[in-house]
Design brief:
- The protein contains 14 helices and 17 strands.
- By secondary structure, it is an alpha+beta fold.
- Helix 1 crosses helix 3, helix 7 packs antiparallel against helix 11 and helix 9 packs across helix 10.
- Keywords: LIM domain, Metal-binding, Repeat, Zinc.
- InterPro entries: DA1-like (IPR045218), DA1-like_dom (IPR022087), Znf_LIM (IPR001781).
- It comes from Anisodus acutangulus.
Length: 499
């Protein structure tokens, strides 16, 4: 809806005794034309010539006292009406005095005088006047009658019929906004068209150039002031939405915060994550990619994960916000042993346990951040298990784009099987999808959780990094064209994706 310029109303008043006063004015004017005004132009003793029968001549002395008083009253009424017409801000029913001219013409025509047409009457025929043409309200389509009225947009309204399209209340201000044929209060039009920040709920301010500038999340469509990207506003570490002022996020105690929707399905300790971990291993087995080794899986805090990354000698690259790790070296890692409890707007009572990981194969353990929603935790596990599968199957010296790209494909495929079952028509994944559905509490997912799953898929598809984003798009194109098995065989032989 495009904004419009400010429009104005003209306020007026129809006199309640208008018909009565006009009638008296007409009678007085008729008598004036028939009496003193016309006689003054005739020679003494000579009467004016009339068409038809000559009217009887009456002297002024013959008139009764009552007639004189009535004539004086009519003359006073006409003078009063004339003064009203000259008064500032007074508006008659018409703008060109046509409804005043019509009864005058009618009265003169009813006498023996020839008719006098009004100033703007057409020259080709008799002038017709519709007394209701200027009195119909464009709101209720009823007769305006006497009292206050509004004149705007070339028509008239009852004051109570000139309504705002947004709130439905009458517009009583002198100025209003117009969009198409719809009228609005200026405040309602601003409320409807000027965007509000979904964080502070204020109108988004204009920049130095006078333009409305705001930030917009591509998936959630959240609009917010640019200043909130640099102030103390929290951002959910899972869905990336900024914290609104009317709903506080939950702090996980390590610099991360979760929104109330993400925390509903969050996994807080290693024991809670074990069923999901085994379901994803079953998913791999259903695609003939069984992982024979029993690789430990631990949920850890942020600091523990960062320490494990620094201790990894191979120097594998990870996402800027690292949320999972496929560990190859022997380390002692502190895992979250007991699910923390909610204490106000933060989790408290986290119980951790140091665990020494020994290397029994190419993969020592898989680490994932605690507190993330179930679908995001599963997507991270699917990604890291693909790293483990590649190492255990002897895929060596792969480029960052190839290894991270194919791992992102497996993460995306698992999310797809959870959010949109059987959406990818691949025979090798049908068994895994049914296995995952039966073992990952798929029947209890809410619409909110499904929406989160769609967002995590959106993140993978629209990632802008060369390794994770570019690698995924190249790997996904190859898998869609040749299938997962052929793509993996080609990677083993050439270290690249098939074209």
């Amino acid at each position: 809806m495009s904004p419009s310029s400010v429009n104005r109303c003209i306020y007026g008043y129809f006199v309640s005794s208008y018909a009565e006063r006009k009638s008296r004015f007409m009678k007085w004017m008729t008598k004036t034309f028939k009496g003193g005004s016309c006689n003054r132009g005739s020679p003494r003793g000579q009467q004016p010539q009339f068409l038809g029968e000559r009217p009887p001549i009456r002297s002024l002395d013959d008139r009764s006292e009552a007639s004189k008083e009535k004539e004086e009253l009519d003359r006073a009424t006409a003078v009063s009406l004339t003064e009203d017409l000259k008064r500032p801000g007074y508006k008659c029913r018409t703008d060109n005095d046509e409804d005043l001219g019509r009864p005058l013409n009618h009265d003169l025509s009813s006498s023996s005088y020839p008719p006098y047409p009004p100033k703007y009457a057409p020259s080709y025929g008799p002038w017709e006047y519709n007394p209701r043409s200027y009195r119909v309200c464009s709101g209720c389509h009823g007769d305006i009658g006497s009292g206050n009225y509004l004149g705007c947009m070339g028509t008239f309204f009852h004051p109570e019929c000139f309504l705002c399209r947004a709130c439905g209340y009458p517009i009583t201000e002198y100025e209003f906004s117009l969009s198409g044929n719809n009228t609005y209060h200026k405040s309602c039009f601003r409320e409807m068209t000027h965007p509000k920040c979904e964080v502070c709920y204020q109108f988004i301010p204009t920049n130095t150039a006078g333009l409305i500038e705001y930030r917009f999340h591509p998936f959630w469509s959240q609009k917010y002031c640019p200043s909130h990207e640099h102030d103390v506003t929290k951002r959910c570490c899972s869905c990336e939405r900024l914290e609104p002022w009317n709903a506080r996020y939950v702090s996980l105690g390590d610099g991360r915060s979760l929104c109330l929707e993400c925390i509903e399905s969050s996994i807080m300790d290693t024991g809670d994550c074990q069923p999901l971990y085994h379901a994803i291993r079953d998913y791999y087995e259903g695609m003939n990619m069984k992982i024979e080794q029993q690789v430990p899986m631990l949920l850890v805090e942020r600091q523990a994960l960062n320490e494990a990354i620094e201790g990894e000698k191979h120097g594998f690259h990870h996402m800027p916000e690292t949320r999972g790790l496929c560990l190859s070296e022997e380390q002692t890692v502190t895992s979250v042993l007991k699910r923390p409890r909610m204490g106000g707007r933060e989790v408290v009572g986290i119980r951790t346990h140091p665990q020494k990981l020994t290397r029994k194969c190419e993969v020592t353990a898989i680490l994932v951040l605690f507190g993330l929603p179930r679908l995001l935790t599963g997507a991270i596990l699917a990604h890291e298990l693909m790293h483990a599968w590649l190492r255990l199957k002897g895929f060596r010296n792969l480029s960052l784009e190839v290894e991270e790209g194919i791992c992102q494909v497996l993460s995306y495929m698992w999310l797809e099987s959870e959010v949109m079952p059987r959406s990818r028509d691949m025979p090798s994944t049908s068994t895994a999808s049914s296995s995952s559905m039966s073992s990952s509490k798929k029947g209890v997912k809410s619409g909110v959780e499904n929406k989160l799953g769609e967002f995590f898929m959106h993140q993978i598809v629209h990632d802008t990094s060369p390794a994770y984003g570019g690698g995924f798009r190249a790997a996904n194109e190859a898998v869609n064209k040749y299938g997962l098995r052929c793509t993996l065989d080609h990677i083993r032989l050439t270290g690249s994706f098939p074209l």
